[in-house]
Design a protein that fits this description.
19% of the residues lie in helices and 31% in strands. By secondary structure, it is of the alpha/beta class. The protein has four helices and ten strands, in the order βαβαβαββαβββββ.
Length: 180
Amino acid sequence: MIKTDKKELLIGVLSDTHIPERTTMFPEIVLEDFKKRNVDFVFHLGDFTELKVYKRLTDEFGKDKILAIRGNMDFDQELNDLLPDKIELEILGHKVLMLHGMGGPNMIIKRLIKKLNLLNSNYDVVIFGHTHRPENEIVNGILFFSPGTTTPIDEKFTVLSSYGYLKISEDKIEPEIIHL
């Protein structure tokens, strides 16, 4: 559970940064936007690929503001020891599941629902990455949200680069995808 005395939280959401395999640097424009909007937390949904990316986020925003999980490309042992496969938490009364994802990019929401039996869960939000594609869809009352990837467009996996925000209050959840 995230404990706060605030009535609304703004969460910056990233996934699949793939540094240094797909790009050499963290996109500064994303970090600057997070700072400009004064995010309360940064969630990273895996595939850092190097511990230094996680450390960059903790250096920029503080360790207490970073919630992260490991992805299928996070082979760094120190990163694997540090990060869980998934995080379940409550944010201002909303049940949230954070995970990386699995399988190909097509029909990922249906796959997550089936593999994790989500229709019989009490989650309000499932936040995931893996596909490099942004998703913002409500299925059976559950918000499925993926920020996409901040890596450069390569026409094979990534046809657009993006990241996201979740504005959460007791009354509502407002998702936003930002295209780079």
